User: What shape does this take?
Amino acid sequence: MKILVCIKRVVDYNVRIRVKPDGGGVVTDGVKMSMNPFDEIAVEEALRIKEAGNADEIIVVSIGAKQVQEQLRTALAMGADRGIHVETTENIQPLTASRMLLNIAQSEGVDLVLLGKQAIDDDNNQTGQMLAALWDRPQATFASGLSFDGGKATTIREVDAGLEVLEVDLPAVVTVDLRLNEPRYVKLPDMMKAKKKTIDVKTLADLGVEAAPGVSSLGVRPPEGRQAGKKVETVEELVKELQARGLVND
Amino acid sequence: MDFQLSFEQQMILDYGQNLAQSFGSDYWREQSDAQAFPVELWQQIAADGFLGVMVSEEYGGAGLGMTEITLLMEGMSGAGLPLFMMVVGPTMVLSLLDHYGSDSLKQRYLPAGCSGEKVFCFAITEPNAGSNSMAITTLARADGSGFKLSGQKSYITGADAADYALVVARTTPLKDAARKTDGFTLFMVDLKAPGVTIQPMEIPVMIPEKQCEIFFDDVELGPDEVVGEVDRGFGILFDVLNPERIVVAAMAVGLGRYALKKGVEYAGDRKVFGAPIGSHQGLAHPLAHAHTEIEMAALMTYKAAVNFDQGAPAGAEANMAKYFAAEAAIKAVDCSLQVNGGAGFTREVGLLDLYGLVRLLRTIPVSRELLLNYIGEKVMGLPRSY
Ligand SMILES: Cc1cc2nc3c(=O)[nH]c(=O)nc-3n(C[C@H](O)[C@H](O)[C@H](O)COP(=O)(O)OP(=O)(O)OC[C@H]3O[C@@H](n4cnc5c(N)ncnc54)[C@H](O)[C@@H]3O)c2cc1C
Assistant: This one.
């Protein structure tokens, strides 16, 4: 089995996000950037699948400026076999990204595409689903368990009612949730080996896709500061207080 | 000149930070309160291949150098895990063995040191010889083909948890030595051997290692436990003492960053009299000052590490880095403590604990005064004071 894992470079989850003064986005200059944490879980899962003997190659792909190669190298240091960098400085939205991933999934002939359930920058939670639709293949989103049997994958999803078990035919798209696994530390020898692994660079034109953003952002504002709280003594008082503020129905 | 970290260097720095974050400050506090060697942490570092950073690949290491261990220690300390055992073992003992040990010494100790199976400490200080190492009196007398070791070492970090100590001893007493730097020999000593007694000292700083006294009473040493040459140990001593200063500087830089992060976050959040306290220059300027000094300390630390790796003289840089980084870290912790008000003194925020720790770094492994003596005399050519 051949696995494609899609990873995105995002502001590190430890960084306190600051909005640009002109409202045109968040500050990324001089800010620590990392692999989207859900994507790291996807890479880890791919490694475990390979280690269990169910896959023979793991390809990692990332879309963006030159710097995304840092995140690709991190995935290679974790143990992925090779990387593909789609180089662009354009604003790439989920639909465009999924078109590119479709091209790569098809030309590489992969059996499984693993993605994070969403990226912590825009929180869109769309790319995996769009890719499955364009590819016309099954999807299982928010996986917190994943196993294989023959040409099928079984996933466990944490839904409001409990655990939902889905079986999908391969090739398929699986997006992963937080509790699927805990990504490994990169070992020192593997860091050294990562340098020698290849990263192929492709352009949008190579993939026959145009950036064409369909959604335009009007502005970005920081959330309002938190107001001081109020302590209430009883549940009745709490309900009254919430009703007075129009937060619950009478 | 190039001030960019390579991909591997960045990964090593990140590794240190991630490791520290995932073990967390509660883990560190619990181990330190209990003065319990952090076994799980040590095993994780071993499993990830970092104990042997400076050891050649043929003996189970990664074959890297000072620059890499410096970044590792900066990363770990920068997220609250200043592990001194990484200084004495991997930075000092293992790298010295790798450089100067006989093949048999290397075979015996290095693979076990890299895998974490055996733990190493470093012993030079004695009750009457700290800053003045010339005055050590621990003596290894020739005995048959080997030696018998007698004497006392003090303040030895992690001796209770270690399997072996690299001991700096005299094979010729000071009074019989032609020059005061003659007559030193470095030995690998099995701390479980007959005649060795270890007694923990009470030193209340927030680190999980105990500091110990070690007593040697006619401990038998085979001839092949000598690292380097008999009576000529002083010549290689600075190949452990400079690395020690460089990584300790890196730890101070990391701790300074860790403290400043706590300061900056609080300064942005905490509102007193209606405004975030960080908007007052009375608090913002000390933070900015401390940040600048920490960054400058980092640069000198990197320069010292890179010089050492390139085989260029690194003594002046190592001393300046250690001196300045410790001072910068003390200021960084002090001003974060002030910014945090009463909260800074809670155990949860932990800045008071950090204060004790960075203050320690002004004194050890070599004190501020001795470093300034070196810089004044050896670097600037000022007249000797002693
Ligand atoms: C927590 C801790 C861990 C340690 N771990 C280890 C270890 O693992 N291995 C090890 O071998 N040692 C270790 N040490 C010992 C440490 O290296 C010594 O404490 C240090 O070198 C200072 O020596 P001293 O305590 O004998 O002070 P002294 O040498 O007695 O100095 C006392 C004071 O006098 C000042 N002074 C001395 N001479 C001069 C001068 N010429 N000019 C101006 N001022 C001077 C010094 O700067 C210092 O302030 C540790 C110590 C501590 C506290």
